[in-house]
Every structure is written in structure tokens, then in C-alpha cells.
Amino acid sequence: MPVEVTWWGHATCTVEDSGTRVLTDPLFARRLAHLRRRRGELPPPEAAVADAVLVSHLHSDHLHLPSLARLAPGTRVLVPRGAVRSVPGLARLGLRVTEVAPGDEVAVGPLTVRVVSALHDGRRLPVGPHRSPALGFVVRGESRTYFAGDTGLFDAMADEVGPVDVALLPVGGWGPFLGHGHLDPDRAAQALAALAPRAAVPVHYGTYWPIGLDGIRPHEFHSPGDEFVRKAARLAPAVAVHRLGHGERVRPGATR
């Protein structure tokens, strides 16, 4: 499988396929409001080099304006429908912003990006109205890579996503408790069994944590990646799971 995946931390990944670089939910901050980056160095300048950027929803740890400002002017950025109205700063970054919704397909060089649903509160919190859906994306080139964004488990997930080779699945969060619309290691393993890709990379865990809460349920910060590996081995033993460290990359196995 010619695709290469680099995990920079949280939900930020570079997916390189067919010579084209796609960046997901860029977050390059040492601190964001009450959150502090507790693991992994800040991503290097190369992390901001991308042909296109996929933004899954409007929460500020996924749509982060200072991180988007590090992109080259004119970079193509796909955002949920209604994002420009909810986050006016997007229009001032000099980027080529395209609003999308589930069912849309967008060409990015030799790649096709198909937009799928996610089960998550997509608003610009804390007070934003329900204008924009949370999204996932399937990047199709020589391989098919599913970036789930931030989502809970929903019945139609596998049918809507369709056949994929690699799944980038959230397995945790940034606080002591996960609310509705999130995957923990158990639910992520269930999603993996339903999706049945050749390979998976757990993301969205072990990077940011609320300041002052280091001693409250610390296993929720440290353990989701390892727990997902164990649960995936039981529920989806045919899937190769790659638990990456921050800044590490992998080229999963051959395309089916």
C-alpha cells in the first residue's frame, strides 16, 4: 500500500498518497485555552506542508485558526458547511476554503476526497449554534484512507464509509471523561471490526490534557492507544494496528 501516514498528535495526521499530501485537523499549539500539550514535541514546519487540509468539525482543537495560519497561502482547506459564517476568521487567512457536507466529493490532484458523516457535536463551542455537521473523510488514491475526525459509533458507519484500506480512528480525548459522540478504545475496536480495513492507526489521545487535572483519571490520558491495540486484536484480529508515537510514520501493507 503506497500510502504513508504520519501522526503529529491529537487528530493531526499527514496522509501522503500518489505524491499528494493531505493534512487532517492541524493543531500545532503548545497550549490551547485550558489544555496543555503533555506529550510529543510540537510538530516541525514540514507538518504544515500540505496540498489540502481536511477539517472535521468546528471545535477549536480541530479548527484552530493559528495552526491554519501556518499553511501556505492558497492551500485548499475543506471545512464543514457553514464554517465560514460560524468562524469568520477563516476568510482572513488567505486559504482556498471549500465548504462540504456528507456525500460531496472533491478532487485534490490525483486524489478524490469523499465526505462522510460523523456522530459528534460539530458546533463552534462554547456557544455556537448547530449550523455545521461534524464530518469524516475518505481519501482515495492508490489507497483508500478513512479519517474519522471525532465521532461516536453509529449503525451506518461501515455502509457509509465503504471499503477502506487504512482507518485513522479516534480512541480517546483530552479530558478525564468522554461524552456522547466519542469513541473510546472499546467502541473504536467495534468500529474497526465493522469497517474491516487492512490497517488502522489510533489517534486523538495522549497529547493534550487540562491544566491542573494531571492526577484525575490519568489512565484516560496514557492508556487508550494500548487498550485499543488489545481490544482490536480480539475484535478485529485480521487488521494490522499501528500505534505510532508523536511524529512517527508508517506505510501500512499492500492494497487489496
Which regions contain 5 or more consecutive residues with pLDDT less than 50? Answer: none
**Strands, total number:** 17
Give the % helix.
Answer: 10-25%
Order of strands across the widest beta sheet?
8-7-6-3-2-1-17
Overall average pLDDT:
94
Q: What order do the SSEs take from the amino end to the carboxyl end, as H and E?
A: EEEEEEHEHEEEEEHEHEEHHEE
Shape: globular
Per DSSP, the total helix count is 6
- Please outline the major beta sheet: 7 strands, mixed
Topology (SSEs and partners):
Elements: E1 4-9, E2 12-17, E3 20-24, E4 31-32, E5 35-37, E6 52-54, H1 65-68, E7 76-80, H2 83-86, E8 96-100, E9 105-108, E10 111-117, E11 135-140, E12 144-147, H3 157-161, E13 166-170, H4 185-195, E14 199-203, E15 208-210, H5 219-222, H6 224-235, E16 240-241, E17 249-250
Parallel strand pairs: 3-6, 6-7, 7-8, 12-13, 13-14, 14-16
Antiparallel strand pairs: 1-2, 1-17, 2-3, 4-5, 5-15, 9-10, 10-11, 11-12
Helix pairs in contact: 4-6
Protein name: MBL fold metallo-hydrolase
Pfam families: Lactamase_B_2
Domain Metallo-beta-lactamase: 9-204
Overview features:
256 residues, alpha/beta, seven-stranded mixed sheet
Model description:
By secondary structure, the protein is an alpha/beta fold. 16% of the residues lie in helices and 29% in strands. It is built from 6 helices and 17 strands. It has helices spanning 65-68, 83-86, 157-161, 185-195, 219-222, 224-235, and strands at 4-9, 12-17, 20-24, 31-32, 35-37, 52-54, 76-80, 96-100, 105-108, 111-117, 135-140, 144-147, 166-170, 199-203, 208-210, 240-241, 249-250. The strands form 3 sheets. The protein has a 7-stranded mixed β-sheet with strand order 8-7-6-3-2-1-17, with no helix packed on it. Strands 9-10-11-12-13-14-16 form a 7-stranded mixed β-sheet. A 3-stranded antiparallel β-sheet has the order 4-5-15, with no helix packed on it. A hairpin with a 2-residue loop joins strand 9 and strand 10. The longest helix has 12 residues, at 224-235. The mean pLDDT is 94.
